[in-house]
Amino acid sequence: MSEALLLLAGVGAGLCGSIAGLASLVSYPALLAYGLPPFAANVTNTTAMIGTAIGAAAGSRPELRGRGRRAAAVMLQCAIGGALGAALLLARDVIRRRIDAAAQTRGRPRSAPWTGLTVAAGAYGGYFGAGVGIILLSVLGLRDREPLAVTNAIKNVGTGTANAVAVVAYVFAAPVHWWAVLWMGLGALVGAWCGPYVVRVLPERPVRWAIALAGYARAASLLW
């Protein structure tokens, strides 16, 4: 896959990510097609999607105005989760061995509070990230009754923060392919900047249905 196609995939990923939170539906397979092994594609994808965060935040300024406190809270929770997710990814083999050695039976977990769910979404974003946007969009949508465009804007800054925190770890400890990051990140910046405008002008109900269907399609593709 050439750099031009990486750029195009980045635009598609940025558009999907800023609207539905499914950037990795486009970007991760594109990086695999580019020739990167799965682990390198994963960390490169997370790094490149910083472009989605910047573009989406720039395009969502009207929805974010006056909601700085809420956005900051979600960003902090996702930052904690992103750091946890990156640590889990980088130490996954050690963790697996310890879990196998410990093998304890546990009781049923209690229902997690909203903050815990947001941190968990951030952790998943830092670990892998495919579909993290739609997970966080669902959590925020259930917690806060507000227009989709606003929930989407908060979701974008949250997932962007989780990515940014994870990238700090990946820069020093993971095989990030910086050339691919450059081209895909540029495309993602453009695509994500356009996404909030699309959400703003389209009718809310059909967009919600489209996001839900895209989420099911993503889940089915992962299971397949």
UniProtKB/TrEMBL annotation:
Transmembrane segments: 39-59, 71-91, 124-142, 154-172, 178-199
One Pfam short name: TauE
Top-level taxon of the source organism: Bacteria
Primary localization: membrane
Keywords attached to this entry: Cell membrane, Membrane, Transmembrane, Transmembrane helix
Membrane topology: Multi-pass membrane protein
Cellular component terms (Gene Ontology): plasma membrane
Compartment(s) where it occurs, according to its Swiss-Prot or TrEMBL record: Cell membrane; Membrane
Coiled-coil residue spans: none
Family that this chain belongs to: Belongs to the 4-toluene sulfonate uptake permease (TSUP) (TC 2.A.102) family.
Protein name, per record: Probable membrane transporter protein
